[in-house]
Design brief:
Number of helices: 9
Distance between the termini: 14 Å
Largest sheet: 8 strands, parallel
Structural class: alpha/beta
Radius of gyration: 17 Å
Number of strands: 8
Bound molecules: nickel (II) ion
Order of helices and strands: EHEHEHEHEHEHEHEHH
Strand content: 15-25%
Shape: globular
Length: 258
């Protein structure tokens, strides 16, 4: 059975058929889902989904592109919610310089990334990190606050093999999703083929980033076998081996998952 480590079923794109999709997960081989909040509204919906479905867990945190939602009051609220039994991580948090070019806003992203990392440390939860076009700053910041003491995953990994190894050295997991099936994803294929299997998590980031042959369509956890299949092909092992190892990895990281 598959452990889906990063989904956004709170997204509006699922409004029409969310219940239908989620109720058929087991039949599609999906055992557990971590639904990840990214803005304040999404975090609230994530908490509701985790309450409603046994196999859905939640992560609470504010995405770097949505930090306008953050202030001390919201931060306190996130801290409160992190102690709910089904909340298993702080995320997604991080840096996104792809969408943000202004220096002042980048520095605000770094501030709230740091604060939310400290929150994770304080409440004893792992982190789910989003980092896009910000490889150096992300690594520097994480090293500066001793992130090797805070377990976590770099989700939708998009950097080099060297960078992956630096994160793995800090104990981090590498989240791999649909992009690995894209023909032009040379760098990610290299990462997926070469890092230790014990550090890989399967994820969709749905509704985004559907793998081949569903590329361009709305994504869901149903497509995770394609991702597992491609990782297996790259490593010369079986798809079952990838599914089993990534499930164990996720259960090691997300300790609140039963
Ligand atoms: Ni995401």
């Amino acid at each position: 059975m598959i452990f889906e480590s990063h989904a956004h079923y709170d997204d509006r794109k699922f409004d029409k058929d969310r219940a239908e999709l989620l109720s058929a997960m087991e039949g599609h081989g999906i055992e557990t889902i971590v639904n990840v909040g990214s803005d304040l509204e999404g975090v609230k919906k994530t908490i509701d989904l985790a309450e409603k479905y046994d196999f859905v867990y939640g992560a609470v945190g504010i995405h770097p592109s949505d930090i306008s939602d953050l202030n001390e009051e919201v931060y306190q609220w996130l801290q409160e919610k992190s102690s709910l039994p089904k909340i298993t991580a702080i995320g997604e948090i991080g840096l996104d310089y792809y969408w943000e070019k202004e220096e002042e806003m980048k520095s605000r992203q770094r501030y709230w990334f740091c604060r939310q990392m400290e929150l994770a440390r304080e409440v004893g939860l792992p982190v789910i990190i989003h980092s896009r076009d910000a490889a150096e700053d992300t690594l520097k910041l994480m090293q500066g606050i001793h992130s090797e003491q805070i377990p976590g995953v770099i989700h939708c990994f998009s950097y080099s093999l060297e960078m992956a190894e630096a994160y793995i050295k800090m104990g981090y997991y590498i989240g791999i999703g649909g992009v690995v099936t894209f023909k032009n994803a040379k760098k990610l294929k290299e990462v997926a083929a070469n890092i230790p299997l014990e550090h890989i998590l399967l994820e969709t980031d749905c509704p985004y980033l559907a793998p081949e042959p569903e590329r361009g369509k709305r994504n869901s956890s149903y497509n995770l076998p394609y991702v597992a299949q491609e990782i297996a092909r790259l490593r010369g092992i079986s798809q079952e081996e990838v599914i089993e190892a990534t499930r164990e990895n996720a259960r090691r990281l997300f300790v609140k998952v039963k």
